[in-house]
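Page 47, continued from p. 46.
Same chain as before, 403 aa.
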Amino acid sequence: MAQRRIGASIILTILTLAIWFQPQASQAQASYQVINLGTLGGLNSVANSINNAGQVVGWADTASGAQHAFAWSGGRMTDLNSLLPSASPWVLNVATSINSFGDIVGNGTYTPTPSGPTYPAAFFLHGSTVTLVATGAGANAINDSNQVVGSLLNPNPNLNQAYTWDPTTGLTSLSPLTTGGFSNAYDINNSGVIAGVSQYNTSNQFDYDPTLWNLSSGIYVPTDLGNMGSLAGMAPDGTASAISNTGEVIGWSTINSSATFTAYLDPTGTPNNFINLGNLNGDGSKDFAQSINSSGDIVGSAFVYSSSGNEIPNAWIWMPSSGPMTDLNSLYPNSGTLNSALGINSTNEIVGWGTFNNQQQAFLIGTPVPEPSGLTAGLVFIVLLFGMGASNAARKRRSTLPS
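Result:
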């Protein structure tokens, strides 16, 4: 017991010295800035999702021009294919979502036998172990219970079918609003409520509405959330793109105005309860809400017309505490062009893609990872020598991403 007290005392002294000799290191927490996450040696990349630990997933081009799924953490981008054995039947092309524990889902190609054939397939990645979700499928999201949602693909995309999957029960198809209609599941919260889109009228392929699926007596029952109206010559339609853990739903819908699509918030996940989030560029833009965090902050993209008449996507944020949506480019000028915000976590770190030096590349709006000084590195080594840090982290966190 005495030895433990002495060890703790030494460590406390070391940590005190660290604070004393690192003036302003706590001013240490730099303000958020735009970080270009780069690529895997190629030209382009996109960041699709970020968890509350700041771990990011997406896709990036390699030096050979192949598109590979990546995970980014602590300032380092990792090709997820590098985690797999050389004889793996998988090529992981896109990572779409990451949960709180670092488990990842996405899409790739799967060749179960060396002689082929090769299938498009959805995958679930835990550490370096890949599990097949389904062939001929896409995976869009994962929650903290490892429930996955996505779409079973059809040669006719108007017949795609939403599904949910988990490692225990396997694949479950989700019924559309009308028999024979197409559907897609885009998100699932930690209560197991699924958000997506479903066709409500099979006589018109554009008749689709934001849809929620809730588990009732062992069956997922779809609920039509409605829409915000229709345009002249267009059927009313919309999509539910994400759902928070408190049941707030976001997405986009047609509306009775000149805007083609308008972003919305449904604060209770109940039919026809839409809050119009407005338009980034007046009534002429197309606005899409993509992600919502635990505080109700929402990010997305808006297609606005440039002076040349071209539609240019701009990333935006909407916060319930501050009113209308704000162009992220106005908050972070001189940082390239932030085109689309696809994910936001509980500390308002945002990921997506932008244009940097004329290339489409992934970005993170967050705190830069500082380079450790010699003193800091030495102190960290001494602390680790006493067996702290790593063991505590292992007990408190089950991240499966490479460090």
